[in-house]
Design a protein that fits this description.
Blueprint (H helix, E strand, L loop, with lengths): L4 E9 L3 E5 L2 E5 L4 E3 L3 E4 L2 E2 L7 H4 L6 E5 H11 L12 E4 L11 E4 L2 E8 L4 H7 L4 H8 L4 E7 L1 E3 L4 E6 L7 H9 L5 H6 L3 H12 L4 H10 L7 E3 L2 E2 L12 E2 L3 H13 L12 H18 L17
Parallel strand pairs: 7-8
Antiparallel strand pairs: 1-4, 1-8, 1-13, 2-3, 5-6, 5-12, 7-11, 9-10, 9-13, 10-11, 14-15, 15-16
Helix pairs in contact: 9-10
């Protein structure tokens, strides 16, 4: 059970850095350093902090990232490395409060500001660059120690040494770790995530999508009609993402073996090329490469590990 108090050990901020990643120019603000004094928490970040990719790592729902010293020390033991404050790209290094088992929607008073726990951190390739470890996304995912993104509910200021107090608990029993675990591993529990979605949010998004001029979007809406009871539109085809976002909201879900069976079935129907994407994309690519491709090989759909699949899979 999550504790109701803790403290801030360090407040960390950083600007955008440019660097080369696999021969291509890239940028990230994952490098954070401790700062002293009182730091303003306003809008969508802390004073002096930046996010290079606001869609993935910023905005209202991901204004501030909190990571516990307890989890950082666990990784120190696992990796044999010393990890300074801010090593995970966190804005708040915490102690005493169980960040991973915090309930989605609970509110924390820190300094003169109030924050709301919004979602877990989904790791991407930038974390591997920061840790200088090409396997760190896998390590991070398997550890189930994601840390939490926070919304700024009441603007104010924070600083190292501030107490963290849980001032409001939501009705949901979903924790940060629950959401992360279900998303990356236990996908059969996806209904628990849907149950926590506000029906008014679904209605609002669906009304907006219904005005779209996109034929593809209109077809998406017909699949589920805005109802959470009609999301499994075919074996292993799930349209739940389309309840709260536009675009291609139908996903291929299931175990490694089930996904492999579906791809072979589609291939036998005449589909000879697949382009697969996921979110977070890097983690989904690992999931597919390490789990689904071996299943395709066992079924003779892939001749050898380095050969082109007869059921092509682009990621």
């Amino acid at each position: 059970m999550a504790t109701d108090t803790g403290k801030v050990l360090s407040v960390n901020v950083g600007g955008v850095r440019e660097f080369e990643y696999r021969g291509h120019p890239a940028e990230s603000a994952i490098w954070k350093s401790p700062v002293s004094g009182r730091i303003a928490a306003r809008g969508v970040n802390l004073e002096g902090d930046r996010q290079a990719d606001r869609e993935s790592h910023g905005g209202f729902d991901k204004a501030v990232y909190a990571y516990s010293i307890e989890d950082a020390r666990w990784f120190e033991k696992e990796t044999g490395r010393t990890l300074p404050y801010g090593a995970f790209g966190e804005n708040l290094t915490t102690e005493g409060i169980d960040v991973d088992d915090a309930a989605i929607g609970e509110r924390w008073a820190i300094g003169s500001a109030v924050f709301e726990v919004s979602e877990p951190r989904m790791p991407c390739w930038r974390l591997q660059v920061r840790m200088n470890d090409d396997q760190f996304v896998r390590r991070f995912t398997q550890a189930l120690r994601p840390g939490a993104y926070l919304r700024i509910i009441v603007e104010g200021d924070v600083g190292a040494g501030d107490e963290i107090r849980v001032v409001e608990k939501p009705e949901t029993e979903l924790t940060v770790r629950d959401v992360f675990r279900i998303y990356v591993r236990d996908r059969h529990e996806a209904d628990r995530l849907l149950a926590a979605v506000d029906p008014e949010d679904v209605e609002r998004v669906q009304a907006s999508l219904a005005r779209s001029e996109s034929e593809g979007q209109r077809r998406m809406l017909k699949l589920h009609g805005g109802s959470s009871s009609r999301l499994l539109v075919a074996p292993n085809l799930w349209a739940g993402v389309g309840l709260v976002r536009g675009g291609a909201g139908t996903a291929l879900v299931g175990s490694h073996a089930e996904v492999a069976e579906r791809l072979i079935e589609y291939s036998q129907l005449g589909i000879d090329h697949f382009i697969l994407s996921g979110y977070p994309h890097l983690e989904e690519a690992y999931w597919f490469g390490e789990g689904v491709l071996p299943e395709l090989r066992k079924r003779g759909a892939v001749a050898a590990p380095d050969d082109r699949a007869r059921v092509p899979a682009g990621a």
